[in-house]
Amino acid sequence: MSAPNDGHTDPAVAFEAAKLGVWTFLATEVLLFGALFTAYTVFRAKYPDLFQAEHLKLNRVLGTLNTVVLLTSSLTVVLGVDAIRKGKARLLQIYYGATILLGGAFLCVKYVEWTEEFHHGLFPDTNIFFSLYFMMTGLHGIHVILGMCVLTYVVVLAGRGRLSASYTTPVEMSGLYWHFVDLVWIYLLPLLYLIG
Amino acid sequence: MSHGTTGARRTYFAVYAALVALTVVTVLVSYVHLGMMNVVVALLIASAKASLVALFFMHLKGESRLVWGFALVPLFFLALIILGTLSDTLLR
Question: In whole angstroms, what is the distance from residue A172 CA to residue A151 CA?
Protein backbone atom coordinates (compact mmCIF):
# COMPACT_ATOMS: atom_id res chain seq x y z
CA MET A 1 0.00 0.00 0.00
CA SER A 2 2.42 2.76 1.13
CA ALA A 3 6.12 1.82 1.12
CA PRO A 4 6.72 -0.13 -2.10
CA ASN A 5 10.00 -1.76 -1.02
CA ASP A 6 8.70 -2.81 2.37
CA GLY A 7 9.11 -6.59 2.85
CA HIS A 8 5.45 -6.86 3.78
CA THR A 9 4.35 -5.86 0.31
CA ASP A 10 6.29 -8.66 -1.34
CA PRO A 11 3.41 -10.94 -2.47
CA ALA A 12 5.25 -14.15 -1.56
CA VAL A 13 6.06 -12.90 1.96
CA ALA A 14 2.52 -11.59 2.39
CA PHE A 15 1.13 -14.99 1.40
CA GLU A 16 3.31 -16.83 3.93
CA ALA A 17 2.41 -14.30 6.62
CA ALA A 18 -1.30 -14.72 5.91
CA LYS A 19 -0.92 -18.49 6.09
CA LEU A 20 0.82 -18.37 9.47
CA GLY A 21 -1.88 -15.97 10.65
CA VAL A 22 -4.64 -18.42 9.72
CA TRP A 23 -2.81 -21.37 11.33
CA THR A 24 -2.43 -19.28 14.50
CA PHE A 25 -6.15 -18.52 14.44
CA LEU A 26 -6.82 -22.24 13.96
CA ALA A 27 -4.64 -22.93 17.02
CA THR A 28 -7.02 -20.80 19.11
CA GLU A 29 -9.92 -22.70 17.54
CA VAL A 30 -8.35 -26.03 18.55
CA LEU A 31 -8.28 -24.78 22.14
CA LEU A 32 -11.86 -23.43 21.94
CA PHE A 33 -13.20 -26.80 20.81
CA GLY A 34 -10.53 -28.43 22.99
CA ALA A 35 -12.27 -27.18 26.14
CA LEU A 36 -15.43 -29.05 25.05
CA PHE A 37 -13.48 -32.16 24.05
CA THR A 38 -11.86 -32.07 27.50
CA ALA A 39 -15.27 -31.80 29.18
CA TYR A 40 -16.46 -34.68 27.01
CA THR A 41 -13.49 -36.86 28.02
CA VAL A 42 -13.87 -36.11 31.73
CA PHE A 43 -17.63 -36.81 31.85
CA ARG A 44 -17.40 -39.84 29.60
CA ALA A 45 -14.83 -41.31 31.98
CA LYS A 46 -17.09 -40.50 34.91
CA TYR A 47 -20.43 -41.70 33.46
CA PRO A 48 -19.63 -44.36 30.81
CA ASP A 49 -23.03 -46.10 31.13
CA LEU A 50 -24.97 -42.85 30.67
CA PHE A 51 -22.98 -41.97 27.54
CA GLN A 52 -23.46 -45.50 26.20
CA ALA A 53 -27.25 -45.40 26.71
CA GLU A 54 -27.82 -41.80 25.56
CA HIS A 55 -25.74 -41.84 22.37
CA LEU A 56 -28.04 -44.52 20.93
CA LYS A 57 -30.84 -41.90 20.90
CA LEU A 58 -29.03 -39.90 18.20
CA ASN A 59 -29.84 -40.40 14.53
CA ARG A 60 -26.76 -42.24 13.28
CA VAL A 61 -27.93 -42.27 9.64
CA LEU A 62 -28.30 -38.47 9.51
CA GLY A 63 -24.98 -38.03 11.33
CA THR A 64 -23.24 -40.18 8.75
CA LEU A 65 -25.03 -38.44 5.87
CA ASN A 66 -23.86 -35.09 7.22
CA THR A 67 -20.28 -36.39 7.43
CA VAL A 68 -20.36 -37.25 3.73
CA VAL A 69 -21.90 -33.81 2.98
CA LEU A 70 -19.05 -32.04 4.82
CA LEU A 71 -16.34 -34.23 3.26
CA THR A 72 -17.78 -33.41 -0.17
CA SER A 73 -17.75 -29.71 0.69
CA SER A 74 -14.05 -30.01 1.57
CA LEU A 75 -13.42 -31.58 -1.84
CA THR A 76 -15.21 -28.72 -3.62
CA VAL A 77 -13.13 -26.20 -1.61
CA VAL A 78 -9.83 -27.78 -2.56
CA LEU A 79 -10.98 -27.97 -6.21
CA GLY A 80 -11.82 -24.25 -5.96
CA VAL A 81 -8.29 -23.53 -4.69
CA ASP A 82 -6.91 -25.61 -7.56
CA ALA A 83 -9.06 -23.63 -10.02
CA ILE A 84 -7.83 -20.19 -8.91
CA ARG A 85 -4.23 -21.42 -8.89
CA LYS A 86 -4.79 -21.94 -12.62
CA GLY A 87 -6.43 -18.51 -12.89
CA LYS A 88 -9.93 -19.89 -13.44
CA ALA A 89 -11.99 -17.44 -11.39
CA ARG A 90 -15.35 -18.54 -12.83
CA LEU A 91 -14.63 -22.18 -11.97
CA LEU A 92 -13.63 -21.10 -8.46
CA GLN A 93 -17.01 -19.39 -8.09
CA ILE A 94 -18.79 -22.59 -9.12
CA TYR A 95 -16.83 -24.76 -6.66
CA TYR A 96 -17.17 -22.30 -3.77
CA GLY A 97 -20.85 -21.83 -4.64
CA ALA A 98 -21.28 -25.61 -4.42
CA THR A 99 -19.50 -25.58 -1.04
CA ILE A 100 -21.87 -22.92 0.30
CA LEU A 101 -24.85 -25.02 -0.85
CA LEU A 102 -23.38 -28.11 0.81
CA GLY A 103 -22.88 -26.09 4.01
CA GLY A 104 -26.55 -25.12 3.79
CA ALA A 105 -27.51 -28.77 3.27
CA PHE A 106 -25.48 -29.72 6.36
CA LEU A 107 -27.33 -27.12 8.45
CA CYS A 108 -30.72 -28.33 7.15
CA VAL A 109 -29.93 -31.91 8.18
CA LYS A 110 -28.75 -30.61 11.55
CA TYR A 111 -32.02 -28.69 11.91
CA VAL A 112 -34.01 -31.87 11.19
CA GLU A 113 -31.96 -33.76 13.80
CA TRP A 114 -32.38 -31.13 16.51
CA THR A 115 -36.13 -30.88 15.79
CA GLU A 116 -36.43 -34.67 16.08
CA GLU A 117 -34.55 -34.62 19.38
CA PHE A 118 -36.67 -31.79 20.81
CA HIS A 119 -39.79 -33.81 19.89
CA HIS A 120 -38.42 -36.73 21.87
CA GLY A 121 -37.92 -34.46 24.87
CA LEU A 122 -34.14 -34.32 24.50
CA PHE A 123 -32.85 -30.86 25.42
CA PRO A 124 -29.51 -29.34 26.46
CA ASP A 125 -30.57 -29.67 30.10
CA THR A 126 -31.69 -33.32 29.78
CA ASN A 127 -28.35 -34.73 30.94
CA ILE A 128 -24.62 -34.17 30.59
CA PHE A 129 -24.44 -36.14 27.33
CA PHE A 130 -27.05 -33.98 25.63
CA SER A 131 -25.56 -30.81 27.13
CA LEU A 132 -22.29 -31.68 25.40
CA TYR A 133 -24.03 -32.85 22.22
CA PHE A 134 -25.98 -29.61 21.75
CA MET A 135 -23.04 -27.43 22.79
CA MET A 136 -20.53 -29.16 20.50
CA THR A 137 -22.80 -29.46 17.44
CA GLY A 138 -24.12 -25.94 18.07
CA LEU A 139 -20.66 -24.37 18.24
CA HIS A 140 -19.69 -26.36 15.17
CA GLY A 141 -22.85 -25.17 13.38
CA ILE A 142 -21.94 -21.55 14.12
CA HIS A 143 -18.58 -22.23 12.49
CA VAL A 144 -20.32 -23.64 9.41
CA ILE A 145 -22.44 -20.46 9.17
CA LEU A 146 -19.35 -18.23 9.52
CA GLY A 147 -17.53 -20.33 6.92
CA MET A 148 -20.42 -19.89 4.50
CA CYS A 149 -20.23 -16.10 5.01
CA VAL A 150 -16.47 -16.06 4.36
CA LEU A 151 -16.83 -18.22 1.23
CA THR A 152 -19.60 -15.92 -0.04
CA TYR A 153 -17.20 -12.99 0.36
CA VAL A 154 -14.59 -14.86 -1.70
CA VAL A 155 -17.16 -15.55 -4.45
CA VAL A 156 -17.97 -11.81 -4.51
CA LEU A 157 -14.25 -10.95 -4.70
CA ALA A 158 -13.88 -13.32 -7.65
CA GLY A 159 -16.89 -11.67 -9.32
CA ARG A 160 -15.18 -8.30 -9.02
CA GLY A 161 -12.13 -9.71 -10.79
CA ARG A 162 -9.91 -9.34 -7.72
CA LEU A 163 -8.58 -12.92 -7.74
CA SER A 164 -6.14 -14.50 -10.17
CA ALA A 165 -3.43 -17.15 -10.36
CA SER A 166 -1.01 -14.55 -8.91
CA TYR A 167 -3.35 -13.57 -6.06
CA THR A 168 -5.02 -16.58 -4.45
CA THR A 169 -4.66 -15.60 -0.77
CA PRO A 170 -8.37 -15.11 0.18
CA VAL A 171 -9.24 -18.42 -1.52
CA GLU A 172 -6.51 -20.41 0.21
CA MET A 173 -7.11 -18.86 3.65
CA SER A 174 -10.88 -19.34 3.60
CA GLY A 175 -10.21 -22.89 2.38
CA LEU A 176 -8.00 -23.64 5.40
CA TYR A 177 -10.78 -22.45 7.72
CA TRP A 178 -13.40 -24.59 5.98
CA HIS A 179 -11.18 -27.69 6.21
CA PHE A 180 -10.74 -27.03 9.94
CA VAL A 181 -14.53 -27.04 10.39
CA ASP A 182 -14.53 -30.38 8.56
CA LEU A 183 -11.75 -31.67 10.87
CA VAL A 184 -13.82 -30.92 13.98
CA TRP A 185 -16.78 -32.84 12.56
CA ILE A 186 -14.53 -35.81 11.72
CA TYR A 187 -14.05 -36.20 15.50
CA LEU A 188 -17.61 -35.30 16.49
CA LEU A 189 -19.11 -38.13 14.42
CA PRO A 190 -17.43 -41.00 16.31
CA LEU A 191 -17.43 -39.32 19.73
CA LEU A 192 -21.12 -38.37 19.74
CA TYR A 193 -22.85 -40.75 17.32
CA LEU A 194 -20.78 -43.92 17.24
CA ILE A 195 -19.22 -44.58 20.64
CA GLY A 196 -21.01 -42.13 22.93
CA MET B 1 2.16 -22.05 -5.07
CA SER B 2 1.31 -22.84 -8.67
CA HIS B 3 1.47 -26.63 -8.50
CA GLY B 4 -2.17 -26.97 -9.52
CA THR B 5 -2.21 -29.68 -12.17
CA THR B 6 -4.48 -32.48 -13.29
CA GLY B 7 -2.28 -34.72 -11.09
CA ALA B 8 -3.29 -32.62 -8.08
CA ARG B 9 -6.97 -32.98 -8.98
CA ARG B 10 -6.60 -36.75 -9.23
CA THR B 11 -5.02 -36.79 -5.76
CA TYR B 12 -7.92 -34.76 -4.32
CA PHE B 13 -10.49 -37.20 -5.71
CA ALA B 14 -8.50 -40.18 -4.40
CA VAL B 15 -8.27 -38.60 -0.94
CA TYR B 16 -12.01 -37.89 -1.03
CA ALA B 17 -12.75 -41.53 -1.93
CA ALA B 18 -10.53 -42.67 0.97
CA LEU B 19 -12.31 -40.29 3.38
CA VAL B 20 -15.76 -41.59 2.42
CA ALA B 21 -14.54 -45.20 2.59
CA LEU B 22 -13.10 -44.63 6.10
CA THR B 23 -16.42 -43.04 7.16
CA VAL B 24 -18.29 -46.17 6.02
CA VAL B 25 -15.77 -48.38 7.84
CA THR B 26 -16.02 -46.46 11.12
CA VAL B 27 -19.84 -46.59 11.04
CA LEU B 28 -19.83 -50.36 10.32
CA VAL B 29 -17.23 -51.05 13.05
CA SER B 30 -19.42 -49.20 15.57
CA TYR B 31 -22.04 -51.98 15.20
CA VAL B 32 -19.47 -54.63 16.21
CA HIS B 33 -18.99 -54.90 19.98
CA LEU B 34 -15.30 -54.76 20.77
CA GLY B 35 -15.53 -53.23 24.25
CA MET B 36 -12.90 -50.56 24.86
CA MET B 37 -11.43 -51.29 21.42
CA ASN B 38 -14.46 -49.56 19.82
CA VAL B 39 -13.19 -46.23 21.16
CA VAL B 40 -9.62 -46.92 20.08
CA VAL B 41 -10.60 -47.98 16.55
CA ALA B 42 -13.01 -45.04 16.12
CA LEU B 43 -10.37 -42.52 17.21
CA LEU B 44 -7.67 -44.12 15.04
CA ILE B 45 -9.93 -43.94 11.98
CA ALA B 46 -10.90 -40.34 12.81
CA SER B 47 -7.21 -39.43 13.13
CA ALA B 48 -6.41 -41.12 9.82
CA LYS B 49 -9.18 -39.04 8.19
CA ALA B 50 -7.98 -35.85 9.90
CA SER B 51 -4.42 -36.54 8.70
CA LEU B 52 -5.63 -36.97 5.12
CA VAL B 53 -7.54 -33.67 5.26
CA ALA B 54 -4.58 -31.81 6.80
CA LEU B 55 -1.92 -33.29 4.53
CA PHE B 56 -3.70 -33.06 1.17
CA PHE B 57 -6.64 -30.65 1.44
CA MET B 58 -4.86 -28.16 3.72
CA HIS B 59 -1.63 -28.80 1.80
CA LEU B 60 0.41 -29.49 4.93
CA LYS B 61 2.35 -31.97 2.81
CA GLY B 62 5.01 -29.83 1.22
CA GLU B 63 4.69 -27.00 3.75
CA SER B 64 7.68 -25.56 5.59
CA ARG B 65 8.71 -26.75 9.05
CA LEU B 66 7.44 -23.46 10.44
CA VAL B 67 3.87 -24.14 9.25
CA TRP B 68 4.11 -27.72 10.57
CA GLY B 69 5.09 -26.26 13.93
CA PHE B 70 2.09 -23.92 13.88
CA ALA B 71 -0.16 -26.88 13.07
CA LEU B 72 1.22 -29.37 15.63
CA VAL B 73 1.97 -27.24 18.69
CA PRO B 74 -1.75 -26.62 19.46
CA LEU B 75 -2.32 -30.38 19.39
CA PHE B 76 0.42 -30.78 22.00
CA PHE B 77 -1.30 -28.21 24.19
CA LEU B 78 -4.67 -29.90 23.68
CA ALA B 79 -3.17 -33.22 24.82
CA LEU B 80 -1.65 -31.44 27.81
CA ILE B 81 -5.02 -29.91 28.77
CA ILE B 82 -6.92 -33.20 28.43
CA LEU B 83 -4.32 -35.31 30.26
CA GLY B 84 -3.77 -32.67 32.92
CA THR B 85 -7.51 -32.40 33.59
CA LEU B 86 -7.93 -36.18 33.65
CA SER B 87 -5.05 -36.60 36.08
CA ASP B 88 -7.04 -34.37 38.43
CA THR B 89 -10.61 -35.66 37.92
CA LEU B 90 -9.73 -39.38 37.80
CA LEU B 91 -7.54 -39.35 40.89
CA ARG B 92 -9.69 -37.04 42.99
Answer: 11
What's the pLDDT score for residue A10?
87
C-alpha gyration radius of chain B? 17
Instruction: Tell which residue, A39, A118, A35, A73, has the closest CA to residue B12.
Output: A73
User: What ipTM was estimated for this complex?
Assistant: 0.93
Segments forming the whole domain that contains residue A115: 33-194
Tens-place pLDDT, residues A86-127: 999 999 999 999 999 999 999 999 999 999 999 999 999 999
A40: domain CATH number?
1.20.120.80
Q: Which residues of B touch A88 (CB under 8 A)?
A: none
Query: Which residues of chain B are within 8 Å of residue A175 when distances are taken between CB atoms?
Result: 57-58
Round to whole Å and give the CA distance between A194 and A187: 10
B45 and B2 part of one domain: yes
CA distances from A119 to A113, A125, A132 (A): 10, 14, 18
pLDDT of residue A8: 63
Please say whether the dihedral angle defined by the alpha carbons of residues A29, A68, B56 and A85, taken in this order, is positive or negative.
negative
Q: List C-alpha distances in Å: A50 to A45, A126, A195.
A: 10, 12, 12
Which of B4, B16, B23 faces A67 most closely, judged by CB atoms?
B23
Nearest to A45 among B9, B27, B86 (CB): B86
Domain count, chain B: 2
Give pTM, 2 decimals. 0.94
Please give the residue of chain B at the shortest CA–CA distance from A81: B4
Query: What three-state secondary structure class fits A88?
Result: coil
3-state helix/strand/coil string of A47-84? CHHHHHHHHCCCCHHHHHHHHHHHHHHHHHHHHHHHHH
Residues B38 and B28 in one domain: yes
